[in-house]
Structures are given as C-alpha cells and as structure tokens.
Amino acid sequence: MRGPLTTTTLTRKLLGPQNRHLWFWIFVGPFVLGLTLFTYVPLAWSVYLSFFDAHNTVSPTEFVGFDNYTAMLGDDAFTGSLVTFLVFTAFIVPATYVLSLALALMVNRLRWAQAFFRSVFFLPVACSYVVAALIWKMSIFNGVRFGLANTVLDWFGADQIAWLSTTDPPWYWLVIVTVRLWLQAGFYMVLFLAGLQRISPRLYEAAAVDGARPGWQVFRHITFPQLRATSVAVVLLLVINAFQAFDEFYNLLSDSRGYPPYARPPLVYLYYTALGQGQNLGLGSAGAVILALIIAVVTVVQARWFGLGRKED
Amino acid sequence: MRTPRSASPSTRPGTRPNDPPRPRPGIPPNTRDVRDALVGVGRAVRLVLLLALALLFLIPFYLLVRNGLSSEADITSPEWRFFPSELHWSNVREVFDDPNVPMAHALLNSSLIAVLTTVGTLLLASLAGYGLARIPYAYANVVFYWILGTLMVPAAVTFVPSFVLVSSLGWVSTLRGLVVPTLFSAVAAFIFRQYFLGFPRELEDAARVDGLGYWRTYWQVVVPNSRPVFAAVGTIVFIGAWNSFLWPLVIGQDRDAWTVQVALSTFTTAQTVNIHELFVAAAVSIVPLLVVFLVLQRHIVAGVERTGIDD
C-alpha cells in the first residue's frame, strides 16, 4: 500500500500532500475571503463613509470630515441610547448570571428528571425574540385587561398597568428584561452545567473531610472558584449580546405609530438613522464605528481584566 | 461510614459531584440527625422551586398555543380564562388562507435560508477549521487571528456597512443577499478548529499511509468520524438562521423576501391581522425548531458545551 508518490502526474505534484501552502489555502481560503469581503470590507467602507455626507445613497457625496462624528456624539438621542444600553446591561447581565447559575446548580443536583428540567429551561432557546416579544406584548404584559400580568394584579386588588407605555416608573423595563431572561437563561445554564461536570468530586470530598458544611460554604469555597473560567466566558457573552440588543426592543415597543422616544438601544437608534426615512448612511456609519470602537474597547478591557485569552494560546 | 464515592469515578461525564457530602463520622448522632433533616428539607425546597420555575418557563409556550387555538373573543375577553372556551383548530388553516398574510411564502423563505445557511456554514467553517488545525503553514496563526478579530466586532454592529455593501451589489431583497453574507461564521470556524485539534491523529496517519491526500483524508476519514460536532454546530446555526431578525429585516425589504420572523414582526406592529391568526402563525413558526430540538437535543446541548469558550 505504500509508495503512492510513484504516480507522479502533474496534478499529483501540484496537489500532492507535500504542497502544504496550497492545501492550506484551498481549505481556509474561501472562508477567509468571504469573511474579509463581508466583515472587513464593510467595516472599512463604513469608516470611509462616515467621513462623508451620504443621504439616501451608498456612495459618498461630499467630504465632511468629522462632522458626522461630532453630530452623533452631540446628539442626545444617540448618547441617550448608550445610556439605555448601559442600564439594560446593568439589569440583564447580573440577572441572567444569577438565574442561569442557580438553575444549573439545582438541575445538576437532581437525581431524577434531570433531562426533563434541563429541556424545559433550554426550550426557550428555540423561540425567537419576535415570537417571544409577541407573547409578552400581546398576552402577558398587555396594557388592557386581557393580559395575564394585569389579571394577576387584579387578583391581588392592584391597579392595572399600561406596561409598555408607562415611563414613570418605567415599567417597560420589566417587560424587556424578562423576555431576554426567559430566552437566554437556559443557554447559559447549559454552559454552567458543563462547567459543573468538570469539577473533580475529590475537591468535594476534601471539603467534606475538612468539615465544610454542604451548601453555602462548599459553594463559596469550591464550586464558585472552580467555575471561574465559565463565569468569565458567560459574562463576556452576556455583555456582547446585550450590546446587540435589537429584536426585543424593536418588536415590543414599536407599533404602527412608530418607535416611542424612550428605550432606544444603540442598534435601534442606528437602524432608524441609517435605514429609516432619512436614510442617512454617513451618519449611521459614524454611529456604527463609534459603537464598534466602544464594544472593542469594552471586550478587550474585560478580557484583559479577567485574564481571558491567556489559556487559548 | 463514608459514602462510597468510587461508584462515580471523576473521569466519567454525567456524574453529579454536587451531592451534598455526608456528615463526618466524628459528629455526634444528634447533630447528624438535624443535619440530615435539613438536607432533606433543602432537597424538597429545591424541588418545589424547580417545579415552580419550570411552570413559569412553560407558561409563554402555553399562552402561544392557547391564543392560537382560541377565538378572537376568547383572547380579548376581559374575563381572563386559563382554558379557551372552545378550541378552534380551523385557525391554522385560516392563517394560511388569509391573502393578507404571506405565511406559506415566508415559511418557504425561512426554510430555504436556514437550510442553505446551515449547509454553507458547515462546509466553509469545517474546511477552514480543519486547515487551521491540521495543515502546517507558517502563517496559520496570522490567519487565525484575522478570523478571531471579527469576533470582536459583533455582527449586528456591521449591519449598516453590510447593508451598504449588499445594496451596492444589488442584492437587496434577494436570497443571495439574505444568505451569502451570513455564511462566514468565525464562531463556527473556531469551534471546528478546536474540535479538529483534539481529533485523534492516528486515524489520519493511517489514511496518510494509505496514500490519501489532505482532501480525501478530510472527506473519507475525518468527516465521517466527526458527525456529532457537525450535528451540534449545524443545529445551532440552523436555530440562529431561523430566528435571526435584524438582517432579514434590513435586506428582505420586499414582501416576497420576508422571512417568518419579519412577517410576524410586521403584523405585530401594523396590526393588520387578527390576534388569533398572529398567534397561530407564531406557533407554526416555532414548530420546525421544536422538531429539530426534540430530535437533536443531545447534540445541541453537547454542541453548546463544546463551544470551547469555557475551557
């Protein structure tokens, strides 16, 4: 069976396993090319376009320097959208972290029906934000009587609430946060479950021998520190995903009258700036560049802070 | 006295290392009884809590089906009822017959997009992952970081520049425009690379001895032995493609190019359809994923765990 190189045809010479560079690019080339074309080129184009005036057109018309950037940063609506994002992140990241970790801890300890509970909590991952937003908006947090939340409030004799249009107090936050919590907690629960499986039982034995009380002490001194790598990854993913929040905001809050002037995260704002009626693509590009820079900085700082990436090399 | 731990060796996946440690032999029996009782109570509380949470997690699904099978009057009735007064299975046909609702067409679009995206992503990302992991090349790391770099820039941020590119290619409202730009998933390539790094070299060496080059080794040896990772990444990509919203909203502007998600969203904001039809449509839209989910559940969970991000 040895000695395939005896048939030295031209193609064999060209495409033989010894020509590694060529084979590397045959395997990796198409992907890298596409990635470059559909990620790096648009980014570069966006940076370029952000220095131009481009209304209703994808080709730059007039060079305006940093005007788009100053306009964007001086725009209360845009800076307000960044604040919206920060508030949203401040709510959703800890909430998802705690819920998914708690679910993982509880499910992990089950002796029976583990698969059932894991499936139930993971099931919403199959649901889209559009569908979830529909259920939340039209069935649970309906402003009128036939919503579930208001029905429950009514049982307790409380007043009904127009969930999505009350800004003082901002009840719409409850709706927005619970949708995302429902949709993503199961996913992160699975990540935590994977992390829990990897903790050596010996550590727990050692803790028991040392007299650590099961429960809080074991969790604090064994489980939690051992989950560090998973926790770092989960927080990183949660923040990145929160930055991309669009679907639920758009679907919960916009209606036939348009989008309300509150609760606009950056992507919703950019969507309306770049593709709304004005179609101001230059301005939208500037906003996208600013947002990309912020995300890159946050990600790098966070990764450095947690020491992520050291292990990957 | 010690509970035998050897029954669950640490290397076996699926063990439950979190079982509360048994009390130490030295502790007076009295304390131990109290502790055992507390553990028992803790277990019961935990189970009740889990059941309550499971119920909360299932309620939205129930409401989806309940409203989908109710009459309009039942949904909007001021007297909220848990069960609809009557089940209207005809709602399902109604939503497909309604000329205002391009439901069948949207489902077809979504299916095409999800299948093409999944197949394309698996092909491109697995080849790239294999090349990066297994073909020695001086600049492989540079290429790898070039790919990883795009992870820093979330896809959603690039929607403005990507729209600019796609529209200048003339791809707006086309299948091309909806599918092609989404095919290059750095995450998928990363998962495949990590997986192939751990692929047993002996199998490939045997293939090499048999005279197979990289290409045939890949297709005849590596791929058939890597079905789980393909299934895992495939289902995740499929779910993502089926549920994606922002890109189809931006690119699928014509009604003919609407995906299910865009169609549903348009109806919720425009309120041109009846609520019960909207809920039926939404319920129908998650059926394909539930099927995929139920059939491939183990792979999905394994795939999520395998993303390598928590190693």
TrEMBL record, chain A:
InterPro entries in the record: ABC_transporter_permease (IPR051393), MetI-like (IPR000515), MetI-like_sf (IPR035906)
Spans through the membrane: 22-43, 82-103, 115-136, 171-194, 227-246, 281-301
Domain ABC transmembrane type-1: 82-302
Gene3D superfamilies assigned to the protein according to its UniProt record, in alphabetical order: MetI-like (1.10.3720.10)
Recorded superkingdom: Bacteria
Pfam hit, one: BPD_transp_1
Main location: membrane
Keywords: Cell membrane, Membrane, Transmembrane, Transmembrane helix, Transport
Topology versus the membrane: Multi-pass membrane protein
PROSITE patterns registered for this protein in UniProt: ABC_TM1
Localisation per UniProt entry: Cell membrane
Family stated for the protein in its record: Belongs to the binding-protein-dependent transport system permease family.
Name of the protein: Sugar ABC transporter permease
Native source organism of the sequence: Streptomyces yatensis
UniProtKB/TrEMBL annotation, chain B:
Domain ABC transmembrane type-1 positions: 107-296
Region spans: Disordered: 1-31
SUPFAM superfamilies documented for this protein: MetI-like
Biased composition range(s): Pro residues: 18-28
Compositional bias ranges of the Polar residues kind: 1-11
Location in the cell: Cell membrane
Domain of life: Bacteria
Family label: Belongs to the binding-protein-dependent transport system permease family.
Name of the protein described by the UniProt record: Carbohydrate ABC transporter permease
